[in-house]
Design a protein that fits this description.
Layout: H1 2-9, H2 11-40, H3 45-55, H4 58-69, H5 74-84, H6 87-99, H7 104-113, H8 116-125, H9 135-160, H10 170-184, H11 189-204, H12 212-242
């Protein structure tokens, strides 16, 4: 209990929450739209609530919704969700220099709460990949705002989804929110190129059945991002050797 109280009182905890305040509005809007979309797709309220709490990955939920509505088999749903969440493998590798020395149970708890915008804010605050006493409080400060900013509107969307008229166009609103959140994460040339490749491939393969163009686009973007990252590392090695 004492360590928990100390965490809440740590200045870095408040800093993490403050940094997350800016994107919290977009996260809340996205959560609301996703909650409504899950109910509109045919999920029962208990199943939608469970999905929101256990999956806690809006892009994976949104990717699975059209597949669910199209009657796709379970393996397609799992493949699409897995491909969408492949980015967390890369993000986890980036988190490792900061949190790799922590106990496994603590790392597992943090892994559940780790999200895209947590990562963006954290890396901007701690660009050097080495542990620092402020990092864990800062991480949990961001989580303290990010998690409820998603879950509470998502639950509201789930509970009120049947009362929302279809002509309100929440699906299009969700797309706009998602574009805005993705745009905030395009911080360098590699992410811009990967996003462009995903868009082009998704359009080019639009005629694939069961929305498989989404899976193909994600795979292409991940491959391009990995190749660019690998090339950048190889270019940096000679310079490091000279120093």
């Amino acid at each position: 209990m004492g360590s928990s109280v100390a965490l809440w009182r740590h200045p870095a905890f408040r800093l993490g929450a403050r940094d997350m305040a800016s994107p919290a509005i977009g996260i809340a809007a996205w959560g609301l739209v996703t909650g409504v979309a899950m109910v509109k797709s045919g999920l029962t309220i208990p199943a939608a609530v469970l999905a929101s709490l256990l999956i806690f990955a809006g892009s994976a939920q949104l990717a699975a919704i059209p597949l669910l509505a199209a009657g796709a088999p379970p393996w397609v749903l799992w493949t699409a969700a897995g491909c969408v969440n492949l980015r967390f493998l890369i993000l986890s590798a980036q988190w490792r220099p900061y949190f790799g020395s922590l106990p496994r149970a603590q790392r597992l708890r943090m892994a559940y709460f780790a999200a895209d915008l947590n990562y963006v804010q954290f890396m901007q605050r701690f660009p050097q990949p080495r542990p620092h006493p402020d990092q864990v409080p800062y991480f949990w400060g961001g989580v303290a705002l990010n998690w409820p900013s998603w879950q509470l509107p998502s639950m509201a969307g789930i509970l009120l989804g049947d009362r929302v008229p279809a002509h309100w166009g929440l699906g299009f609103a969700g797309i706009l929110v998602l574009i805005g959140l993705v745009g905030s994460m395009l911080a360098d040339r590699a992410t811009w190129v990967a996003a462009a490749v995903a868009g082009v491939v998704a359009v080019a393969t639009y005629e694939l059945p069961l929305k498989l163009n989404i899976v193909v686009a994600i795979a292409a973007a991940v491959l391009v991002g990995w190749l660019m990252d690998h090339h950048t590392v190889r270019e940096a090695e000679p310079a490091d050797d000279r120093t």
